[in-house]
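tokens incoming
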């Protein structure tokens, strides 16, 4: 394994086909495949093998705690979002909740975002929306050199609507419910990354290509840091260090 090359090495192969090829024991698949595929809202037959290998790499080689998570001792608004909002406001940041962005345009020296019908100038834009919203905003951009990038963005997909429900039953349930789809075995290099054809626009989110072996929540956070770092680099300002597990497998050739 050597990331990010590992992602492209499994282009076109599903996680299920990958484990078939390895003759992976059926009894171990619920642990080794279903957990990761479901965390991506994907059917194992549509879940990319490269994503599965990245999860193996991260959780089984790079995480001392395995699948242990830290959780807050109160609701997220009280312990996370409200303190963060107060901190940002103290730095002069304006937040607008419930506003609707309908257009983004980028030029050589500035960018413009149309919010609730009002054009607002900006030095740069971090587009951190879901794939469907991002596709609409990206498709509406005008400028030279954007067409190939816009086609790659248009090829992304959203997961269908879903709900998380916890149920307890007094017997074994039907093992064949419908599963959701999101990230498949499509060509990794063609997925839009953080950087775009314009230095005034960067992308962030769990659907954005990231060269590190990360899952959805980690990818959203990591691409957020990378997006900020890309803009800061343009302005000659040091960014935030991003740490990752080793990008080469323990048994890989040097």
């Amino acid at each position: 394994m050597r990331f990010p090359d590992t992602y492209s090495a499994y282009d076109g192969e599903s996680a299920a086909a990958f484990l078939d090829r390895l003759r992976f024991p059926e009894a171990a698949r619920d642990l080794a495949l279903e957990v990761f595929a479901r965390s991506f809202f994907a059917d194992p037959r549509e879940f990319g093998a490269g994503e599965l290998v990245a999860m193996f790499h991260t959780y089984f080689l790079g995480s001392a705690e395995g699948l242990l998570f830290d959780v807050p001792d109160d609701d997220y608004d009280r312990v996370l979002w409200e303190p963060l909002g107060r901190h940002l406001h103290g730095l002069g940041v304006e937040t607008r909740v419930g506003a609707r962005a309908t257009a983004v345009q980028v030029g050589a020296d500035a960018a413009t975002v149309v919010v609730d019908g009002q054009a607002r100038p900006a030095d740069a834009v971090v587009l951190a929306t879901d794939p469907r919203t991002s596709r609409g905003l990206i498709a509406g951009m005008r400028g030279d050199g954007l067409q190939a990038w816009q086609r790659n963005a248009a090829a992304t997909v959203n997961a269908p609507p879903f709900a998380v429900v916890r149920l307890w039953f007094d017997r074994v349930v039907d093992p064949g419910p419908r599963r959701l789809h999101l990230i498949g075995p499509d060509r990794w290099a063609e997925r839009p990354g953080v950087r775009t054809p314009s230095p005034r626009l960067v992308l962030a989110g769990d659907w954005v290509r990231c060269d590190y072996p990360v899952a959805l929540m980690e990818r959203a956070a990591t691409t957020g840091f990378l997006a900020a770092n890309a803009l800061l680099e343009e302005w000659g300002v040091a960014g935030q260090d991003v740490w990752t597990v080793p990008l080469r497998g323990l048994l890989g050739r040097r």
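note: The chain has eight helices and five strands.
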